[in-house]
Design goal:
alpha+beta, Pemi-like Protein 1, Chain: D, 2 domains, 3 helices, two-stranded antiparallel ribbon, elongated, 86 residues
Length: 86
Amino acid sequence: MEDRLMKEFIIKVDKKGRILIPSEIRKQLNIKSIVKITLGEGEMILRPIEDPLERIEKLVLKGTTDVEAEIRRLCGVVESELNKAT
């Protein structure tokens, strides 16, 4: 990342290892419910990713006649998206 784009925030880690991402950051990065963490040399990079369930909602066709077949197909899509995120 370019230095001119870098901002620093100090965030407390609680006893269970959790952090709270301030709303300003969540809004700026459009973080909703899932993030991808990449570990590097002494650093952690956090990137927002689209929730696979939200992506599936966009794929569902209105007027589906075989609901069970559609559910099986969508489960495959979810598994594929989760594998991409990891």
